[in-house]
Amino acid sequence: MTKTIIEPFRIKSVEPIKMTTKAEREALLKAANYNLFTLKSEDVIIDLLTDSGTSAMSAAQWAGMQVGDESYAGSPSYFRFENAVKELMPFEFVMPTHQGRAAERILFEVISKPGQFIPNNTHFDTTRANIEAGGAAAVDLVIEEGKNPALDHPFKGNMDLKKLESLIAEKGAEHIPLCMITITNNSGGGQPVSLENIRGVSAICKKHGIPFFIDACRFAENAWFIKQREPGQQNRPVKDIVREIFSLADGCTMSAKKDALVNMGGWLAMNDPVLEEKCRNVLILTEGFPTYGGLSGRDLEAIAQGLREVVDEDYLNYRIASTTYVGNKLTEAGVPIMRPVGGHAIYIDARAFLPHIPPEQYPGQLGLRPYTEGGIRGCEIGTVMFGLAPDGTEKIAPMDLVRLAIPRRVYTESHMLYVVESVLEVFKNRDKISGMKIEWQPSALRHFTAKFSPKNAANDVNLDNGPAAVRG
């Protein structure tokens, strides 16, 4: 008998949601310059902007915070944190940071310079920005299957090993200070990377003497996909898969705000003592003493407990199954999404959803519509996020996606069914949607603060002004 996969936890504390009308949301969106990032969170009914830092912590995590030791140096909370990290990621050195992008900034400040190239399956926004801030080039080498949202492939986050070898041959290993791989591949639809592919990247890097680092934000979800999809891995404990993944690398950056189930924190880990010393000096300058690194003892305790909980296989089964449930509901109704469904989010294929809107009119801004329809906030992953080159020119991203990132242990099935209903209502009226234009943008990471307006709208409140719009 097939049984419903239930949440492997009980809910002991709740917070109210402020309900709004569609007219109110249209006015709020206009006041926010049509940028979902600049909305007040209290004006959002279901917030799927990000899964970063939005997890509900467990009773054990909250209890652990009560024993957090706030000593400036040598806190026992640090050593409990360090032991929990090393139990899963057996690196010699572990430096806490206040979040993942701080780890990236320290690493790339130390290792990158103009004229260098740093490959990845697909760099995410802050990773790319930190690389480019130092003058190096961020190079994406995801397999071709990973660029086709409709294609069903078990590991669309894999790096193209032939392209990696070609890049090394063309640019020279001496101009590649680091190779990264992101698990799961957030920019590519939350798609996992196979263990075989990680082994392949590791072998190529070792052959050419290039350090290999992992962007580890969703390592547990990636390990679960390996266990479920990769031949020969089905009978291995997730913890064993995780340890093998990191044994293949020379270091990692980590945002603990994802798969450590906490609201703040991260770390930078590595084996090279020379690199560690350089990074530690920057850490002390910008984050804090190496045994707290910008975090309180309470944060370190919560991370340590979260790392124990995130590799629990009942939790991972629930987590992936619940995301898949939402994706399947949308697919059954004809909504084009990134297939197969990833672990932390549903990615709507905005170009297929809105074929009448050209990429230069930012179809990924489709994410505005679930907000006006149902108060649901998502995030564009496409030309707005990645289309602004360092020299100020515009380029079209490989895909235009709308990410609906699901916070861990926060929303119930009824919340997710409400999301599905809202997206389907938008899908039913998709021909009425018009493109968008940018009125103002910063020089980097423009998606956070850019100001938009409807491209062809007769007025700037009602967005239903596309080619098939019906106006009263």
| Helix/strand order, N-terminal first | HEHHEHEHEHEHEHHEEHHHEHHEEHEHEE
At CATH level 3, the topology of the largest domain is: Aspartate Aminotransferase, domain 2
* Structure summary, number of beta strands: 14
Distance between the termini: 53 Å
What is the correct CATH architecture of the largest domain?
Answer: 3-Layer(aba) Sandwich
The rounded Rg comes to: 22 Å
How many domains is the backbone divided into? 2
Question: What this model shows, in words?
Answer:
The protein is an alpha/beta fold and 472 residues long. The chain folds into 2 domains: 22-51 and 313-454, Aspartate Aminotransferase, domain 1 (Alpha-Beta Complex); 59-310, Aspartate Aminotransferase, domain 2, CATH 3.40.640. The chain is built from 16 helices and 14 strands. The protein has a 5-stranded mixed β-sheet with strand order 2-8-7-6-5, with helices on both faces. Strand 3, helix 5 and strand 4 (137-140) form a beta-alpha-beta unit. The longest helix is centred in the last third of the chain and has 20 residues, at 313-332. It is globular and about 60 Å long. The protein starts with 21 loop residues before the first helix and ends in an 18-residue tail after the last strand. Residues 465-472 have low confidence and may be disordered.
Topology, element by element:
Layout: H1 22-31, E1 46-47, H2 59-65, H3 76-88, E2 93-97, H4 100-111, E3 117-120, H5 125-133, E4 137-140, H6 161-171, E5 179-182, H7 195-208, E6 212-215, H8 219-229, H9 238-247, E7 251-255, E8 266-270, H10 273-286, H11 297-310, H12 313-332, E9 345-349, H13 350-353, H14 368-374, E10 376-377, E11 379-381, H15 383-386, E12 401-405, H16 413-428, E13 436-440, E14 451-454
Parallel strand pairs: 1-10, 3-4, 5-6, 6-7
Antiparallel strand pairs: 2-8, 7-8, 9-12, 11-12, 13-14
Helix pairs in contact: 1-14, 2-11, 3-11, 4-5, 4-10, 6-7, 8-9, 12-16, 14-16
